[in-house]
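Data card: per-record layout.
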Amino acid sequence: MPQKVMDSLTHAQKERLAFIDFSLQYFGQVSRSDLIERFKTGLAACTRDLSTYRELAPNNLKLSHQTKSYHRTNTFQPIFEHDPEAILTGLCRGFGDGLSNGVQASEYCQGSTKLVLPKSETIAAVMRAINNRQAISCDYISLSSGLSNREIVPHTIVNNGQRWHVRAFDRKSKEFRDFVCTRLQNVTVIEKSIATIQGREFDKQWNNIHKIILVPHPSVIHFKAIELDYSMAAGKIELEVREALLGYLMRQWNVDCSHNASLKGGEHHLWFNNVNELPKLACMTIAPGYKES
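The structure for this 293-residue chain is written out next.
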């Protein structure tokens, strides 16, 4: 019966039920006023949503007449899957704090300080070019050569852990490179078809996938703490990483990429256990200790 009820619901109804489920799970209670403030719906609609939720999961909540809210029971079982990353992002932005727009910082969950994000019009132009397999013309400011005009063919926008960049074919150097999104200026889409070799499928560094094995650094005494930090199994974590992103990941996680875990200092919690199995990769020059390997 519950699955039949769920299948009959609209997407909007499921969103409201997911909010009820989320609020019960992470805040312990939910009220009609929370639903009204979040979704701008009427009282009757909120009552129907709560009744539907009770039909789906009668043992998940109980009404407190004193607070006029529904409270989470000890037998609560979520009826929606709530992704941990999405949860923490939502909590940091105020989701569940009774805010309808969810853009004010929460007092109870704080994220890290972020760099300035690219302008929305820049992201829009780049995404249109990606979607339509077109190039863009832009002014780009690099650390090595300063300001120059470029024509690039973007295929993916990437968060490398420190900033957003776009992976693109550079018509000037005739190779695939990374361009920092905040350094793109005066972006316009060139509404012409691109050459085949400028497409994503010809970006070898992007398409090459490497299997890497990370283990607690030998200098760490209480290695169980590191195993828990990275959800390791049998004392290691195995990842498949695009070659173009491998160096960024090693730098972000401060992984010791030296031949024999020779880097000193408590900041290195991980060691790249199979680094010697990799071919020589240009992307790894930014990785801690790689030059020593």
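Known properties of this structure: The first helix runs from residue 2 to 7. The CA atoms of residues 114 and 162 lie 8 Å apart.

See the next section for split statistics.
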